[in-house]
Specification:
The chain has 260 residues and is of the alpha/beta class. Helices cover 38% and strands 25% of the residues. It has 9 helices and 13 strands. Helix 2 (53-65) packs across helix 8 and helix 2 runs antiparallel to helix 9 (237-245). The chain is globular, with a radius of gyration of 22 Å.
């Protein structure tokens, strides 16, 4: 009788916990965010804390929506597949929304646009995309930089890396002639590595929007992110975060305070 009573009580407790969201899919469970550790200004680690424009914006969105976040470092080349298979709930790393990527994941509403910078060492003869023919050019595999190089300088020798740090190290050592990074990232690398004599020889602005990635069909989470995004744009938080991480980049009209 005691065992039967205990079993019955246990069953009730399980049912109550499930009803209250105590299971694995609980809304109180931290959402796992796949991000990068070295891709300034969008997504990086500083003093052990994940930060950058994308991650700080996502934190502000989460605060508006009462969502808990847990950031985890990964490589960009595997990030979208990890969101697709459920390892991560959200992908946050300046992900450009392309038709090809929409086959793998769903995206939030746009929250920024992609800008690229062609970076090279002095003496390489690189001045723009027309001078990349035959040159060894570094890109992070699977990024817009990767696809942009293939489309705009098909005779360049693309050298693909898993992350920015590896591409930068190769550029500084002379293993590659140039590289294509996010514009703000390229400018920072040039400023912080004067001995390497790096220069952003051309900035390229695209109309490709950035978005937070979620598993296909997860309209509930995408909806919460979009609602929070509207709120942080309207109250001016978007502009404050942008000014902190990308002070020299223009603010598109749709992201200015008061927009809904």
């Amino acid at each position: 009788m005691k065992k039967s009573l205990a079993a019955a009580v246990g069953a009730v407790l399980v049912a109550v916990l499930a009803a209250c969201g105590g299971g694995e899919n609980s809304s109180t469970r931290p959402l796992r965010v796949g991000t990068l550790s070295d891709s300034k200004p969008n997504a990086y680690q500083e003093n052990g804390v994940f930060t950058g424009f994308d991650n700080e914006l996502l934190k502000a969105i989460a605060a508006h929506q009462n969502l808990k976040l847990e950031f985890v470092s990964t490589e960009f080349s595997t990030l979208l597949s990890q969101v697709a298979n459920g390892k991560f709930d959200i992908g946050s790393s300046g992900i450009s929304q392309t038709d090809e990527r929409r086959k793998t994941v769903d995206f939030s509403a746009p929250y920024n646009y992609q800008s690229l910078g062609i970076e090279a060492r002095e003496g390489t003869g690189i001045t723009d995309e027309n001078s990349l023919a035959g040159k060894r050019i570094g890109v992070v595999q699977g990024t817009v930089s990767d696809s942009w190089l293939a489309a705009n300088a098909p005779t360049a020798q693309a050298v693909k890396f898993p992350q920015d740090a590896a591409a930068l190290a190769a550029l500084k050592s002379g293993a590659i002639d140039g590289a294509i990074f996010d514009q703000a990232t390229a400018e920072e690398y040039a400023a912080k590595n004067p001995d390497a004599k790096l220069k952003v020889v051309k900035a390229i602005t695209t109309t490709i929007p950035h978005g937070f990635a979620v598993k296909k069909g997860n309209t509930e989470l995408a909806g919460k992110i979009n609602a929070g995004l509207k709120a942080v744009i309207a109250d001016g938080t978007w502009e404050k975060v942008h000014q902190r991480f990308e002070p020299n980049a223009p603010v598109p009209a749709e992201f200015k305070a008061g927009q809904k």
